[in-house]
Amino acid sequence: MIKVGIPRALSYYQYYPGWKTFFEKLGAEVVISSLTNKAILNFGVSRAVADTCLPVKIFLGHVISLIGKCDYVFVPAITSLGEKTYNCSKIIGLPNMVRALIPECPTILDPEINLEKGRYYLYRNIYKLGRYFSSNPVKFKKAVEEAWEGNLAYRRKMSHEKITAIQAIDRIYGEDCAPAPSLDPPEELTVAVVGHPYVVYDDYINHRLIFRLQSMGAKVLVPEMVPEGELAIAARKLVGETHWSFEDEIIGAGEYYLEEKVDGIINLAVFGCGPDSMMVSFVQHRAKELKIPFLPLSLDEHSSEGALLTRLEAFLDMVKRRKKI
Asked: Which CATH topology does 3-157 take?
C-alpha cells in the first residue's frame, strides 16, 4: 500500500481530516509525523536559513522525521483562499523550499491551492494529485466529495461543540493528543487565545499554553469555536476588506471575542513575522478602546517556559483583580 506522509505542522490543524479522507479513499495509507519535540525542532533549524520563521523550521523538521516512513510527502502550496487574499510567501513557496533544503525527501505531492485562479484550476490540480493513486474518475470524484464533507464536519464540530482542533481530531479519530488538566479548578475567567492554529495548537512551541490556562482556572476560547462566517464579518468590521488568508483567525477572532466581552485576550505570534505584527496592533488598539486586558506573546525557538509561565500568572492575576473591582 502506498504511504503518504503528512507533516504535523502549519496547515495540518486546519485541513487534516479532509486530507486524511482524500488519500485513504484513494487507497493510500496516511502517516502523520509525531508531535513536535526537541529533535524535530533541531532537524528544522539545521536546514533552514537564518531568517526563516519558527513555524517553517518546525515544518522542515517534521518533513525530515517522515523520511524512510512513507513513499510521498504531502506539501501543498496554499497560495490563495479567496478573491484578492493571499497567504504568506513562505507557505506559498513551501514545496520548493523543502526540495531545496531537504534533497533526500521522498517525492513531494505539491498541488497549488489558488482560488484566485478559479475552480477549474483548483480541480485540475487536485485531479493531477489523484492520478498518483487511481485512474478511476468515479473513485476520484467520490474521494474529493468525502474529503470536502469531512473537513466541513470537522469545522462544524469545533464551532458547535466549542472544542479545539486537537480535541476535535481526538474525538474523530481517537488520537490522544491533548493533555487534560491534572486538576479540575472552577473556571473563574474567560480568556480568548487568538493566533495561527499551528502556533496555538503546537504545545512544544507555546509550552502547553492552553493546558496551563485551564489549570489556572480559565475557560479558553479559540478562533475555531466561533460560528461559521462570523470571523470574516468581525474582521471586516475592524479593517474592511482583508488581504491575507489568515486575517480572520487573528483580527476576526480578536474583534469577535472583544465584542463578546471576554475577560482577557492573549495573542500568540511568532517573532519576526511582519503580517502578524501589523494584525496584532489592530486587535491591541481595539482592546485598549474597550478596556479589555490584552497580552501579546511573541515566541521563537529560544522562548523560555519559565518566562512565559510568569507572564501568564501575572496576566491572570491582573484580570482577576480587575473583575473584582
From this structure: Rossmann fold (3.40.50)
d(CA 59, CA 119): 28
Which one, of 238, 234, 295, 309, lies nearest residue 263 by Cα? 295
Residue 274 has pLDDT above 80, yes or no: no
Q: What's the pLDDT score for residue 16?
A: 95
Q: Report residue 187: phi and psi, to 5°.
A: -80, 105
Residue 262 β-bridge partners: none
Fold of 180-324: Rossmann fold (3.40.50)
DSSP string, 33-49: PPPP-HHHHHHHHHHS-
Decide whether 3-157 matches 180-324 in CATH topology. Answer: yes
Q: What CA–CA distance (Å, rounded) separates 189 from 323?
A: 9
Question: For 50-109, how does the pLDDT look when each residue is reduced to its tens digit (9 = 90+)?
Answer: 778 899 999 999 999 999 999 999 999 988 777 777 788 888 899 999 999 999 999 999
Q: Which three cell numbers stand for residue 266?
A: 492573549
Statement: residue 185 has pLDDT above 60: no
Give CA–CA dist 222/260, Å, rounded: 13
CA 71 to chain CA centroid, nearest Å = 25
Taking the domains of the chain in order of start, what are their residue ranges?
3-157, 180-324
